[in-house]
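In response to the reviewer comment on reproducibility (Comment 2.3), we provide here a single inverse folding case reported in full, input and output, so that an independent group could reproduce the run without further information from us. The structure tokens appear first.
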């Protein structure tokens, strides 16, 4: 005789369409606060508008609603981070001397900012070598790009576009998980599922992906660069995965 355990009851952990999307409400600055929604009286209104937007405890005392707002706000913050990264990569692709610096990093300084000749401001531009004049960059982005295996401005453009796409996806995810499929309080209190998501998804898969990139892309390309090979002669990153002769 086979004794079967009862099937676990499937719980619905999301609410469908809990809050209507209102563009009219989004167009009213400070709609979340009765005081701020009245409009600006002093400059303090500007600071309160930014400070109180994420003070969710002042909006409501409903723990589920607060949890949903925090969860969706995380996606919004990720969207801003991706947008910032996209801007940095686009700046390097469009305005920098990255390819010249990559060919001779000891004699050419990194620069990605050229001051336009407006009322004498071009005096800020300096000779960084390689026939390029601009403000020398000290942020370390050039070194990060080289260590990542980026060898051309086209790859910087592609990375900038990819980051922009991810920014749009994160923005959509924040809207979706608040207006279309908002998790219930029970979902936020399920510690096991949250740990599985963070440990397995973010740390596990993220670390494996970055390790694979380091082994199959960054290390081979940096070996070529350290050997003095012209960056334009280095094979594209995907060729290291498909052509085993390059790894020999």
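Designed residues, in position order:
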């Amino acid at each position: 005789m086979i004794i079967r355990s009862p099937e676990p009851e499937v719980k619905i952990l999301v609410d469908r369409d809990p809050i209507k999307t209102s563009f009219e409400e989004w167009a009213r600055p400070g709609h979340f606060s009765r005081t701020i929604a009245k409009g600006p009286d002093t400059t303090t209104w500007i600071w309160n508008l930014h400070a109180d937007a994420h003070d969710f405890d002042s909006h409501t005392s409903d723990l589920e609603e607060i949890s949903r707002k925090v969860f969706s706000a995380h996606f919004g913050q990720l969207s801003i981070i991706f947008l910032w990264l996209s801007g940095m990569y686009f700046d390097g692709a469009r305005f920098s001397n990255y390819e010249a610096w990559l060919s001779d990093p000891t004699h050419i300084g990194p620069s990605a900012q050229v001051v336009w000749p407006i009322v004498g401001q071009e005096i800020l531009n300096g000779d960084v070598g390689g026939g390029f004049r601009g403000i020398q960059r000290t942020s370390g982005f050039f070194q990060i790009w080289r260590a990542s295996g980026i060898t051309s401005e086209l790859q910087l453009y592609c990375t900038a576009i990819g980051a922009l796409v991810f920014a749009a996806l994160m923005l959509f995810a924040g809207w979706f998980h608040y207006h279309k499929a908002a998790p219930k309080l029970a979902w936020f209190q399920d510690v096991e599922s949250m740990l599985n998501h963070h440990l397995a998804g973010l740390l596990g898969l993220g670390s494996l992906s970055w390790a694979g990139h380091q082994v199959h892309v960054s290390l081979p390309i940096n070996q070529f660069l350290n050997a003095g090979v012209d960056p334009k002669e280095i094979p594209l990153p995907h060729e290291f995965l498909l052509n085993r002769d390059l790894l020999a």
